[in-house]
Amino acid sequence: MSQQQTKNCITLRGSAQILCEYLKFAINSVLFQRGLYPPESFKAEQQYGITLLISEDPQIKDFLTNLLTQSEEWIIKKKVNKLSLIIINVANKEILECWDFNVQYEDGDVALSKEKNETVGSKDVKKIQQEIRDVMLQVAATISYLPFLDCRCSFDVLVHAKTDCDVPDKWAEAEPVSIANAQNVQLKSFTTSLHKMETVVSYKFVD
Amino acid sequence: MAKEGDMSLFADVLEPFRRVINTDPPKDKLSSASKLNFSDSNQSLKEGIGNLLSLGKRKSSIGMMNDMSTPEKRLRTESGSTPASAPPSPWETKRLKGDLIAARAQIIQLESRISHQHTLRKEMQIMFDEEKGCLMEQHKRDERRLSEMEDRLQLIRRREQDLKDDYNEAVKQHKDYKLKWDQEKIELQKQIAELKDNLLDAHVSSKDQLSEMKKDMDELLQALEGAQSESELLKKEVERLSTKAEQCSTMRTQLEKTMFELQVANNKVKELEYEKDSYHDWQQQVKTAQKRLSNMADLEKEVGRLRAQERSLRDIASNKLLLEEQVHVLQSRVDALQPVQNELHEAKVKLATIESALEEWRSAARAHGIDTARGLSSALEAAFTSQITAADTTSKAQSTVAQLTEEVATLKFERDKVTARVNDLAAVKKTHENLIHRLQKRLLLVTRERDSYREQLDCYEKELTVTLCGSAGAGGAALLSARVEQLEKALQSYRDLLAASEPAAQHAVVENLRAEASKSRDEAAALRREAGKLRAQRDTLQLQLERISQHAPTKILHLTDNPAAEAHKQVQLDYEAAQEEIKRLKAALRDGGDSKACPDEIQQLKQQLESSKIKLKRLKEEFTSSAQEYRDVCYMLLGYKIDRTGHKNYRISNMYAESSEEYLTFNLDEDGIEMVHTDYSATLGELVELHLHQHRSIPLFLSALTMELFTKTTMQQVQ
């Protein structure tokens, strides 16, 4: 009984870590899939039972670690509503694509939480990983319908935080983004029973 | 009015008394009349009140009367007692007793009436008091109102007074104004009169002026005419003078000519005089010579000496000529060389500057990793092409934007069309449904009619069977059969009717309508589906919108050193660098577009140019020197200096010519060379005739001329 409990117990921090791990792989995957950086700068890595590509560029690595450590803190504090990975045309600063990662907070296993005296979830990690894998596969499949990016592009990650969240060092407020004539595609979502992650990609629709 | 009302009220109150009094027995009429003088009713209120007061007095008197009799009674009793002085008879006592009883009764009656009257009076009093209170109140109110009215009246009066004052003031003001205005008017009229006077004056003066001006004008016109005539005269004069001037000029030219001639003549005269003088000298010389002839040998010796001297002098002269020629040549050469030297200096300076510029260029190019001029130009070209492509892409993007907006507009239009069609179809569906409904109703009616007919038929048949069973008579049977026949006919007709009504045509129509209805139903269903789809879409869009609006209160944060910013910075830097380079290259183009563009090549070319220039210069020098030499040689050998004066025109002047004026001109044409007539050639008639016309040889002519001139000059020298 106790063994099973420890097996399926997910703390808030653990859930946030799962989310951030997902974000890291998802962002890297998008960067690779959308061809923002040369493919030779990516390294294959086994995760969620599939092969995913992670950028070796030290700048991107730094950026992502900075971003995700801070985001993890915020997710634990429930300050974050959404993270948006925006792909920008460098020449004219036009937003070409926006990958929204909506974070929703869930109660988890209430009974277990009471028992443990902290908010915990009881979802099987394998199941969560299965769900994440589905999303990652979908992300990889988006290349078939997303428009070809034929200009020099770069990316940025915007954190949609609650207004009472204070701005740490090296962070700044950004302008809200909008894509003209946007087409939205909702990908699968997954949940850790504490957090629900919804992935939506919106792109500039050109017919 | 109120008083009258009161009076009538009073009269009403008094009326029953009057009646009571009237109904009194006649014997008491007098006393009652004297006691209660009601009929003698006074109309005034005060009198009424006084009456009442008197009534009160009377009442008191009546009260007293109960104890003792009234004076009248007393009087009556006295009058009664007077006869009673006599011993009363029983009849009389009886009568007196009766009278007494009657009187007592009457007294009681009267007392009751009095009490009644009292109550009435009290009532009246109360009423009157009330009335009085009312009246007093009214009076007070009236008084108050009166005072108010008076106040108001006073107020109004005051106001009236004020108004009057105002009015008076206004009137006064008005009068003042009127006075003022009148004065002003008078002044203005005066002014008008003055102005009119002025106007008249002005008219008169203007007329005067006009007439003066007219006069002036006439005068001027006359003057003009005079001037014109004068000018004509002057013109004539001028013409005359010009003719004169022409004449003068001609005369002057003539004069000049004559003067010239005169001078020539004078010269000749002088020459002649000089000759004469020389002749005199000659004569003297001859004389001396004749003298000297004696010592001839000395003279001959001297002649030989002199000849040698002359020869040497001639050599010297020729040498001097040669030297002069050489000096001239050298001078010209120096003149030619000086600019060359200057150019050389300039070229050296230029070379230095160019070399420094070249070095700069080379360093700049090396800084950009470009070693050759070609590389630089290719880089420039690449920058230009990139600019052009950028412009191209922007224009393309703009065009695509325009296209997209257009497409959006067309889609909107189509959507509107589709919705309109949907509406139309819905309307059609509704009409169809109505039609179906009506038809179904009609069908129901028809079926009901048919059922009723059938029932009727059944009824008839039943009746028929009943009658058939019931009756047995032969006549009845015939009748019945007839009736049956009739009924059958009717039945047949009904059936026909039924057949007609039920049937195919209608059926078909109904089918048709049904099909149509089903079709429209399907259509309606499809439309509904579509509407549902659209609704779902709308809902999703709304949801999205909500989600978007939900995100409004969030704060958007990002890392300041994100890749996008970095990339943007990089791009900015690149762009700036490119811009800078373009600017630099443009400046370079502007500065050295013509001389420094490709330093190496240009330097090479310049060197070539320089060398070729130098070569050319040398050649020229060589040529000029050789030409000069050639000319000199020709001059020295042939005795003629040949100058080319123009195209195929040659001027030759002889070495022994007396002046530079003595020259000949030859013209080269297809046939050969021809001598052109000159002033000098005109003087050589003989030679021309002999050598040119007869021998047809120009060299011979020229040689002959040389010979002649040489002899002439030598002759002169000899002489």
UniProtKB/TrEMBL annotation, chain A:
Localization of this protein: Nucleus
UniProt superkingdom: Eukaryota
GO CC annotations, alphabetized: cytoplasm; kinetochore; nucleoplasm
Pfam families the record matches: HORMA (PF02301)
GO biological process: cell division; mitotic spindle assembly checkpoint signaling
Keywords for the protein's UniProt record, in alphabetical order: Cell cycle, Cell division, Mitosis, Nucleus
Cited InterPro entries: HORMA_dom, HORMA_dom_sf, Mad2-like
Domain HORMA residues, every copy: 13-201
Family to which the UniProt record says this protein belongs: Belongs to the MAD2 family.
Name this polypeptide is given: HORMA domain-containing protein
From TrEMBL, chain B:
Sequence segments annotated as region (Disordered): 22-42, 62-93
Pfam families: MAD
GO biological process entries: attachment of mitotic spindle microtubules to kinetochore; cell division; mitotic spindle assembly checkpoint signaling
Keyword line: Cell cycle, Cell division, Coiled coil, Mitosis, Nucleus
Compositionally biased region (Polar residues): 31-42
Keyword Coiled coil: yes
Coiled coil: 139-316, 401-544, 568-629
Keyword Ribosomal protein: no
Main location, first listed in the record: nucleus
GO cellular component, as recorded: kinetochore; mitotic spindle; nuclear envelope
Subcellular location: Nucleus
UniProt cross-references to InterPro entries, sorted A to Z: Mad1
Family indicated by similarity: Belongs to the MAD1 family.
Designated name of the protein: Mitotic spindle assembly checkpoint protein MAD1
Species for this entry: Chrysodeixis includens
Origin organism lineage: Eukaryota, Metazoa, Ecdysozoa, Arthropoda, Hexapoda
